[in-house]
Amino acid sequence: MDKARRGSGLEQLLALVRPEVEAETLRAFGLRMASLAVRHADPGLLRRGLLAVGLASLRSMDDRDDLRALAPLWRTASLLHLDPSHEFTAAAVEFPAAGTFLLGWVDRTPDSQDLVEMGYRESTDEDGFRYAEDATVHRRILEEDFARRPRIIRLLLARRRRRWLRENGFD
């Protein structure tokens, strides 16, 4: 990200990013940067994470995944005693292509920016602070989404739903 920022620009980086697979990688990078920023009290890591998730939002198929990735970054800004609104706005200015997406997060209600509501919790491991995903929130979202679908679609998706529940310990 730094090389792209110094060189030919973040806009040209889009040409190198294949949809969805790379978007997921960028979201994971953003989450990792959020955790590391807290561990090292480094706002620069937070900013890298914001730009990565902003870039992912331009390539992904589902905005919900991108929105979820912003919750840990928002919380990280608070933990670093920074103004989250200012950090997100600065990232939007630096990367205008993702500006609408990043500023949309700033305009959300506090409840819809909540870390737990977005499926994460603060945790620690042997390396220190980290954000962990909360599968119970994913299950609630999956169930709500599944219930809204027409019956024929629910039948077609039933196998995938059962597999996800089994893989995540919700037998």
UniProtKB/TrEMBL annotation:
This protein is called Uncharacterized protein
Q: Which organism is it from?
A: Candidatus Frankia alpina
